[in-house]
Write a structure and sequence with these properties.
This protein has 3 helices and 23 strands. With 274 residues, the protein is mainly beta.
């Protein structure tokens, strides 16, 4: 019986690590998601698959965070986090003594998120652990409230005897959560053609609940946008001098957005899930 237990434990551990080419983590994991998003196998700030890593405030101003992300990684959007729930199987899982949730993609690859809890603070700068035994992971997406960011949370449900995955928002300054990074998207292509960007983006683009928001300071110059499906059909277009532009009523799927300001153009690749 002991030999069988050791064999099963070794099999489970090797299954999680199977998609990693070696033990020099982190690696990028392909779960076969519709968006093509590649996920880091580790939390930001650790090289262990079951490590908790560092905790970050939601304003993402930390120099350590910027250094850890580099040019390879990015903070996921809320739609990318929701894609894990929508397109993967998930369950409560214990990996090397650490509880968490295991996502399994349709291609069989897995991604383990440890239940690293989170930290809640106040104006005096004191932080205390919050919801121990659960996991809370930031997205880069702003919520509908000022100074709040969307996040993913999971916890063990005693009634269902399994993990529950849900989403919400927390104040960005007084909460420190984990971050599971995704591969930074530095290239966009439309109908097989690679699209190049101008050097510096004079705007910030976010996707939240299927709505694309473009924030720009160029109020004297019109911002023009064209939203394309990957087959090059146009899904939406327009022009505005507003500093904040919201593009909604988009169909589901991966989109390429061409943003033009003052004779220069930039291309963004986004995923619309609803």
């Amino acid at each position: 019986m002991r030999t069988l237990f050791i064999f099963l434990l070794a099999f489970i551990t090797s299954t999680i690590n199977a998609q990693c080419p070696d033990d020099r983590h982190p690696h990028l994991i392909d779960l076969g998601l519709h968006s093509g998003t590649m996920w880091s196998c580790c939390n930001l700030g650790t090289n262990d698959v079951n490590g908790f890593g560092d905790y970050f405030s939601g304003d993402f101003s930390s120099e350590n965070l910027k250094k850890l992300l580099g040019d390879t990684y990015a903070i996921p959007t809320i739609d990318q986090l929701k894609e894990l729930q929508d397109q993967c199987n998930y369950k409560f899982y214990t990996y090397n003594g650490v509880n968490g949730v295991l996502f399994t993609g349709k291609n069989g690859n897995t991604l383990f998120f440890p239940a690293a809890a989170s930290y809640c603070g106040s104006e005096d700068g004191d932080y205390s652990i919050n919801n121990e035994g659960s996991g809370a992971y930031w997205s880069q997406s702003h919520s509908n409230y000022d100074d709040y960011n969307d996040f993913m949370e999971f916890y063990y449900d005693d009634c269902d005897k399994d993990m529950t995955v849900c989403f919400g928002e927390r104040k960005s300054v007084y909460n420190k959560l984990s971050i599971r990074a995704v591969k930074a998207s530095n290239e966009t292509s439309l109908n097989g053609i690679t699209l190049e960007n101008s050097d510096i983006k004079p705007y910030e683009l976010r996707v939240n609940n299927g709505v694309v928001t473009i924030n720009t300071n160029n109020s004297n110059k019109p911002t023009t946008w064209e939203v394309y499906n990957l087959d090059a059909t146009c899904d939406n277009s327009g022009s505005s001098k507003k500093k904040t532009i919201c593009i909604n009523d988009l169909s589901k799927g991966v989109k390429i957005i061409k943003i033009s300001i003052d004779g220069k153009s930039w291309y963004e690749k986004v995923l619309i899930t609803h």
